[in-house]
Amino acid sequence: MNAVTSQMPLSQVPAPSPGLVPTPGLAPAVVPAATSPTGFASLRRAHSEGDDLDITRATASQRAAFNVDKATESNNDTPLTLACSNGHAQMVNVLVCRGANIEHRDKKGFTPLILAATGGHRDVVELLLNNGAQIEAQSERTKDTALSLACSGGRKDVVELLLSRGANKEHRNVSDYTPLSLAASGGYVEIVNMLLNAGAEINSRTGSKLGISPLMLAAMNGHKEATRVLLEQGSDINAQIETNRNTALTLACFQGRTEVVALLLQYNANVEHRAKTGLTPLMEAANGGYVEVGELLLDACADPNTAPVPSSRDTALTIAADKGHERFVDMLVHRGAHIDARNKKGCTALWLACHGGHLETVQTLVKHGADVDLQDNRKMSPLMVAFRKGHVKR
Question: Across the chain, how many H-helices and E-strands are there?
Fold first, then answer.
């Protein structure tokens, strides 16, 4: 009996509900009435502030009137969901002992266990599991489990506990992401290691239209160490998304993830792979103007004059010039790119730079000897298109 209940008549001391076992060291306290606005307000205040003194000052009439599962109108929160969200283990223990609905769902369809896991409150998660909370309960809209959300939020201690209790490591949420996919996407290396050590499928693919792997998610989001772990554990470096044929390397180049690109090249990623768009990794880097990525690819023997994009006949140089990426253009020319290559419309890099009004790019191309008189398929020269677009500088 704790300091509060030891001074109360035995008839007023709340007894644990049948079948529910209090956590050792967390003695049941007295809870304020939630049926009145002031009672529920004080309870919410206690939850948010972690103030257990407010809980122990209830009158006998308040205790008698207390409805342990009374929910708010706004979010369908109960005292238990609020306590779990804020990680107040002692209050959770009290409410569970008073028979609170351990599987109640708030407006988002989150159970107390899911809320505690999302918040990273390991002791609350353990308390709920010890009292029979459903470990595989799913949120109603996203179909996430406690493990899914703990992985996506980087809650290492909670993930470790849930795995030790047998949580399904291959569960897929509504987006078809597994816990490993979610951890890789967030770059949570320790969690990635935990899941792999627990036997999670390293090359799992989402069943959605993308079909993206954990390695692709880590790479495209720039998580170098998570990418390294997945590669060391045997992830397929050249696996492709079924619908667009992107690989981890093309995705990393598209996002300008320099460190990840360097790592993937060390593991011999295919530097000339073409996605469904027809773009190579170098072309993806040219599109974003990522010079450091471009240099890495060229150092790894990417061809600056590889066959152009089938649909548009664009090269890495015309792509970079069209976007006005002067430094990338300069790098490509120095690395031997054909300066007067034409795309499907007959446009050279210089023509495209003039069309876009990219003065520095124009100056660089002219300096390197680009033909200023080459016309497009409509017989328009770079100078003519510059005038037509109003790109005139005296």
Answer: 22, 0
